[in-house]
Write a structure and sequence with these properties.
The chain is α+β, with helices and mostly antiparallel strands and about 260 residues long. The protein has 6 helices and 14 strands.
Length: about 260
């Protein structure tokens, strides 16, 4: 297995962000977009960035597999010891609306666990990086995750909350990767999704948040594994260490009460 130049991977993610920014304007809708399935928007930038990343990353580590949102149907390289798990633009809905809450997400996974991640959010002028067991940072600043100890009142990135839910709403980027990064930087205490999601949405953010001291699991509180053949996991739960058990219990209660509902 060849050595990986992580500085070069960060540079590639920066270039990918620059490429995406060529088709993004603050407050303006992107022109070259379509639906790849009902409700699933894709832009020309998604495709261009995906193509760029695959060419550059595979040149860095040819033996690694490849799993990406825009080439999810290509499973020829899944299941290898190492794999790139990539979302060329996570938060496409914000991207196409001219909102800043999107990023380029690149993770390197080894034996099912992310060992390196980078999120480049050029419209927010932020770049997040982490190496497992080493460090995690945003714009060169070391990260320390939320230290929240009480689930009630915890900060949740959300557009609005029903009055009966005792949580505190904070800014919500469309990118779930950036929402996990908010927990890593103590801007939020809790991120939860209770639907089937994709590995490429969260792999890079997982290592960034975990290295900062957050807990990252699936919606049931179980370990997340990457580079599966289907590229999916049931939900994600990212919290401060202290409220994870309470969050798992709340999610389990919610799922039980809503079982069978669409």
């Amino acid at each position: 297995m060849g050595l990986v130049d992580f500085d070069q991977i960060i540079a590639i993610a920066r270039e990918a962000g620059d490429l995406a920014m060529q088709q993004w304007q603050a407050g303006k809708n992107a022109e070259k977009t379509w639906e790849k399935s009902p409700g699933q928007i894709v832009s020309e930038a998604d495709i261009a960035v995906d193509r760029f990343l695959r060419e550059r990353l595979e040149a860095q580590l040819p033996e690694a597999g490849w799993l990406s949102e825009e080439t999810a149907e290509d499973q020829s390289l899944s299941g290898r010891e190492m794999a790139w798990v990539v979302d060329p633009i996570d938060g496409t809905k914000d991207f196409v609306k001219g909102k800043p809450g999107w990023c380029v997400s690149v993770a390197l996974v080894k034996n099912g666990a992310p060992i390196f991640g980078v999120l480049n959010a050029p419209a927010m002028d932020e770049i997040w990086t982490a190496k497992a067991g080493s460090h995690t940072e945003v714009n060169g600043k070391a990260l320390k995750a939320s230290q929240c100890t009480n689930y009630n009142g915890a900060r949740l990135p959300v557009e609005e909350l029903p009055a009966y839910i005792d949580l505190t709403p904070v800014f919500k980027p469309n990118s779930i990767a950036l929402r996990l990064a908010m927990v890593a930087d103590d801007r939020a205490d809790l991120v939860v999704s209770t639907r089937w999601g994709s590995e490429w949405d969260i792999a890079a953010a997982h290592v960034i948040a975990e290295e900062a001291g957050a807990r990252v699991t699936d919606a049931y509180g179980k370990q997340l594994r990457y580079n599966g053949t289907h590229g999916q996991a049931f939900g994600v739960l990212c919290t401060s260490e202290a409220i994870h058990a309470a969050a798992v219990a709340r999610v389990a209660k919610f799922l039980s009460e809503n079982e069978g509902q669409s």
